[in-house]
Structure formats: structure tokens, C-alpha cells
TrEMBL record:
<dbReference type="Pfam" id="PF13379">
    <property type="entry name" value="NMT1_2"/>
</dbReference>
<protein>
    <submittedName>
        <fullName>ABC transporter substrate-binding protein</fullName>
    </submittedName>
</protein>
<comment type="similarity">
    <text>Belongs to the bacterial solute-binding protein SsuA/TauA family.</text>
</comment>
<dbReference type="GO" id="GO:0042597">
    <property type="term" value="C:periplasmic space"/>
</dbReference>
<feature type="signal peptide">
    <location>
        <begin position="1"/>
        <end position="21"/>
    </location>
</feature>
<keyword id="KW-0732">Signal</keyword>
Length: 333
């Protein structure tokens, strides 16, 4: 999220959100309809598509309408304005809203992914990679203020690299255009999400040499969140939603990358099956998919550390103020 470009919009939406408080809608047949906005369509969110494909939400009396909102700021806009009931987006967005003085804060209530989802891709093949190899290079990073870039810079600093002085950091490329920019010759290294990283590797355009998710540690990277007022009014629906998500998390843990890929493939019709399998296996093997919906305080504090290091945090926000684990805890009982 671009803090400066969205701050004024968030203020207006906070005022609107106080009036529009959403609610679960009767979908008929005794089911409650929930509109869920995902920040993007990504194999990174495999458990969500498992829950949809396997009918876990329906089993819990829910009809879930999934829409892609294409960006953290747009997801939060839709949530605050009442166009969606639940957002799937990075926890940092709820902190940005809180920093604007929200009277109806956005609450994180179920975690889906617990690591960053980007990888370090080099243009040339590298034998025996060392992070110091990045010094003096042209590094094509993610956009400033977004969680991928913050996790990327956090990792670089952990490795003794100053992103501002030790390399040329390129941040002026829009998220959607980063793969194309690298393919056209921009940067010696690039920070990429899947499936672009695996596609480049398959095509011989790049080589995956490190994982920012593995290096930056556990944090509430992608989380289901909603306005506090919505959760108070729709406790049963929220708990049913979390129960379905957790069933999917268990299913993903117990099945192979090939089995998972087959179930979620309908959500990625244009993707090659072998790429979907590769990506699922990569995320699964490094523990990116959360095994339960609990948002741990230690993970939350790691997120604050990452944001603080990036200069994107006005003040630290206590875990208890923006996280409600009560639904997850009830489900785990």
C-alpha cells in the first residue's frame, strides 16, 4: 500500500465505514452469504481455494462470493465502504487504518499464510550464492510501503546489506509490471512472487536462488479481516468461516502438492499444471501455509519489527487491539 497516496482516501472511508457497517446476508436455504475480497488471485492462497472447491464453506452453512480486489489499498477500500464483508490481505493494512484513527477498526481474525511469498531471482545462474553478491548490483524490488518490499528490505538488512547504499534499489515499477521489466533487462536480481519466479526458471529467464519468506521469519502475512462491528454482529458466521478455513488448512497439510494442485487448478485455468505443482510444493515445503488460523503475538511483533525497520510504522500497535483470536480458539477446541 502506498501510504501517502492512500492516507486521504482512508480518512474518508473511515467516516463512511462508521455508517455502512456490513452484515452477513441471507442467501436462502438457511445459508449466510459472505462476500470475501482477496487482494489478488494467487497460488499462495491455496487453502482458500481448497475450502471453496471441497465445499467446506457450504458445509458450515455459508455461501462465499469470492472477488479479487487487486491491491491492498483497494481491498481496504472495499472493506471500509461495505462492498465486501471480509478481506484477505496483509495485516499491515489494518495497522495503516488504525494509524488513521479508525473508530470501527479492522480486526484480524484468521491467518492464512505465515511467511512472505516472494523469492530472489537472479538473471544469471549462480553457484554457491552468498547474499553479499547483491552488493553493487541493480536490484528490482517491490513497491515501497508494501509488505513484500518491507520483508525484502528487512531480509537484506539481516544479511548486512544496506538497501540504500550497498546496491541500486529500483522501486518505481508497478507491481503488475515487475516481471515484464525484469524480462526486458531491468535489474540483475528481482524480488518476485510465484508463479512468475517458477515460470522464469522454466523458461530460462531467471534462477530462484533464495526465499524472502524463509529469511524474514513468521509473520501474519495474509490474514482474513473485517470491521469490528461486522464481527460483533455476525459471530456465528465468522466462527463458521474460520472453521471452514481450518478444515482446508488441515487438508493441505495432509495432502501432496500434486493433490492440492489438482483441487485448486480450476482457479488457475491458464496456468500449466506442472507450474502449479511446483509453486504449491515450494510454498508448502517452506511452511508458508499456516497450519491453523491463530495469529500469534510473536508473529505480530515480527510484523511490527519489519514495518518499523522500513519506516512505515508511526507507533507500535498492541496485538490485542487489532487481533481477535476468539473464533480460531473456539474452532481449535
Amino acid at each position: 500500500m502506498r501510504r501517502k497516496s492512500t492516507a486521504a482516501l482512508l480518512v474518508l472511508l473511515l467516516l463512511a465505514g462508521a455508517v455502512l457497517g456490513g452484515c452477513g446476508k441471507d442467501a436462502g436455504g438457511g445459508k449466510t452469504k459472505l462476500t470475501v475480497g482477496e487482494v489478488t488471485r494467487s497460488i499462495f492462497y491455496a487453502p482458500q481455494y481448497v475450502a471453496l472447491s471441497k465445499g467446506f464453506f457450504e458445509d458450515e452453512g455459508l455461501e462465499v462470493d469470492l472477488v479479487s480486489t487487486f491491491g491492498g489499498d483497494k481491498t481496504m477500500t472495499a472493506l471500509l465502504s461495505g462492498n465486501i464483508d471480509i478481506g484477505l490481505v496483509g495485516s499491515e493494512t489494518s495497522i495503516y487504518v488504525a494509524q488513521q484513527g479508525a473508530k470501527d477498526p479492522v480486526i484480524n481474525f484468521a491467518q492464512l499464510t505465515q511467511t512472505d511469498g516472494t523469492f530472489l531471482v537472479s538473471r544469471e545462474a549462480v553457484n554457491g550464492f552468498d547474499w553479499n553478491d547483491l552488493k553493487g548490483s541493480n536490484f528490482l524490488g517491490q513497491r515501497k510501503g508494501g509488505m513484500p518490499q518491507m520483508a525484502g528490505e528487512f531480509t537484506l538488512k539481516k544479511k548486512g546489506i544496506d538497501p540504500k547504499t550497498d546496491l541500486k534499489l529500483i522501486q518505481n515499477v508497478d507491481f503488475a509490471n515487475i516481471p515484464a521489466a525484469f524480462a526486458s533487462g531491468t535489474g540483475d536480481y528481482v524480488q518476485l512472487f510465484e508463479p512468475q519466479a517458477s515460470i522464469f526458471e522454466k523458461e530460462g529467464r531467471g534462477h530462484v536462488i533464495a526465499s524472502f519468506g524463509a529469511e524474514s521469519g513468521h509473520l501474519p502475512y495474509t490474514v482474513y479481516m473485517s470491521k469490528q462491528s461486522f464481527l460483533k454482529k455476525n459471530k456465528t458466521a465468522a466462527e463458521s468461516f474460520v472453521k471452514a478455513v481450518h478444515r482446508a488448512q488441515i487438508w493441505v497439510e495432509q495432502h501432496s502438492a500434486e493433490e492440492i494442485a489438482k483441487v485448486i487448478k480450476p482457479y488457475f485455468e491458464d496456468a500449466d499444471m506442472d507450474i502449479v505443482v511446483t509453486v504449491v510444493n515450494r510454498y508448502k515445503s517452506q511452511g508458508s501455509y499456516a497450519s491453523d488460523p491463530i495469529i500469534d503475538e510473536s508473529e505480530w511483533n515480527n510484523l511490527l519489527d519489519v514495518m518499523e525497520a522500513a519506516g512505515e510504522l508511526k507507533e507500535r500497535v498492541e496485538h490485542s487491539k487489532l487481533v481477535d483470536n476468539s473464533f480460531a480458539e473456539q474452532v481449535l477446541k
